[in-house]
Amino acid sequence: MSNRLKFELTAPNILTTLRLIAVPFLAWFIWRWPKYQLGGFITFVAIWITDMVDGWIARRFNQVTEFGQLFDPLVDKIFQITTAVMMFMVGRIPLWVPAFMIIRETLMILGGWYLLKERNTVVYSDIFGKAATFFYVVAFGFLFWLPDNPRWIRDAIFIMPVLLSTAATINYAYKNRSKLPTLDHEKREN
Q: Which of 4, 37, 63, 109 could form a disulfide with 10 if both were Cys (CB 3.0 to 4.6 A apart)?
């Protein structure tokens, strides 16, 4: 992987950039809950669909780039965390959902950054990560339309994505354990 990440003008990279631009609009629609509930939902679905489309185009038409491999998952994280924080701000979900997501994603970003910079390794999403993302998106999609009561339903729909997200984190660490620093390894290097 090169030291300098270069933006290549490809359809997937353009779609990813458009997704990032759409996130503040989504945040604004949610902030104006419930007045712009439909606008928020449409923006949410559009972001999700373009995420699937850009990945399909990249693989189908051989437009996978280093920029896209790193930027696409980052935009996904920004999209999901923004949605979670804004839904908490308007009282749609409890604090533990965005708190868990922020802590988990921070750990993943720091771990991924370390592996990239120190071990020249890119951590790609696996089946658990993809499943967690899917269930988060489904849960947030339902959240736009679930009634205020009973409250427990809006909390319970996040159990599956949180469990899958935890499994993904453990799996990423396990798969890359030989590349992570250990005290014994560091002692041997000195």
A: 63
